[in-house]
Amino acid sequence: MSIQTNLLNIKATLPKQVTLVAVSKTKPVSDLMEAYEAGQRIFGENKIQEMTEKWEQMPKDIQWHMIGHVQTNKVKFMAPFVSLIHGVDSLKLLQEINKQAKKNNRTIDCLLQIYIAEEETKFGLDEEELTSLLTSNEFQELKNIQIVGLMGMATFTANKDQIKKEFLHLKSIFDTNKNLKSEICNLNTLSMGMSGDYQLAIECGSTMVRIGSSIFGGR
Ligand SMILES: *Cc1c(COP(=O)(O)O)cnc(C)c1O
């Protein structure tokens, strides 16, 4: 099936409150343009250089989401244009994003990545680290970032019960911390769910799904 058909079929099944991030990593600009022409305006990439090259070549009404793990020394390259950074997992990284956002005279929206999987290879904060980050003085000094929600990745497994348990765990952390509102923090976005598990993620309360291979094909 074509990229446009895949995209429109998926969009037709998403509830209104769920935002679709089309994950286009490793795919050529021509593939992204097919999705763009079908109306897609949010694209997710996991490498800063690749995202920057695509941003330079593509229409400027696209919102670019960084969904990969971010190294502090690379933040400056995306700071002029990135629309949402999904994988923020430390104060140090937030401080660098804040610094680069300020240089560019803007505020950058971020999601904090929460560790919910059983695999040790996945990144993210645990619940305690999240609370201590959100309540720290250093955090409240940042003025050029906005924490708009949380992101998580479930274990790579065929066991739906386990994935569901992990998604519900993230949803409960999200609900608990929603009340911690401040000038720079207002959790309204819950980014969870990919091609293999997004329906389940939505059942568990996801408001943003990151879908790659079901739209663009395998990588
Ligand atoms: C690649 C990737 C996705 C999309 O994965 P698919 O299985 O192709 O839908 C979603 N989230 C993150 C963080 C990714 O790296």
Any descriptors?
alpha/beta, 219 residues, TIM Barrel, 40% helix, eight-stranded parallel β-sheet, binds pyridoxal-5'-phosphate, 10 helices, 8 strands
Structure description:
Strands 7-6-5-4-3-2-1-8 form an eight-stranded parallel beta sheet. By secondary structure, the chain is α/β, with parallel strands linked by helices. The relative contact order is 0.15. The chain has helices spanning 3-13, 29-37, 48-57, 75-78, 91-103, 127-134, 137-140, 160-177, 198-203, 213-216, and strands at residues 19-23, 42-45, 63-66, 84-88, 108-114, 145-152, 185-191, 208-211. It is globular and about 50 Å long. The protein has a single domain, classed as TIM Barrel. Helices cover 40% and strands 20% of the residues. It binds pyridoxal-5'-phosphate (PLP). Pyridoxal-5'-phosphate (PLP) binds next to strand 8 and helix 10.
Quick structural overview:
The chain is an alpha/beta fold.
Q: Which strand order do you get reading across the main beta sheet? A: 7-6-5-4-3-2-1-8
CATH topology: TIM Barrel
The N- to C-terminal Cα distance equals 16 Å
Examine the secondary-structure arrangement and name the CATH architecture: Alpha-Beta Barrel
Strand content: 15-25%
Largest sheet features: 8 strands, parallel
CATH class: Alpha Beta
> Total domains, how many?
1
Give the uncertain stretches in residue-range form: none
Backbone shape: globular
CATH superfamily: Alanine racemase
H/I helix tally? 10
Mean pLDDT over all positions? 96
Bound ligands, named by name, code or SMILES: pyridoxal-5'-phosphate
Our Rg estimate from Cα atoms comes to 17 Å
Helix content: 25-40%
What kind of assembly state do the chains in view correspond to? Answer: single chain
Element order: H for helix, E for strand: HEHEHEHEHEHHEHEHEH
Query: How many DSSP E strands?
Result: 8
- Please identify the structural class as seen in this structure: alpha/beta
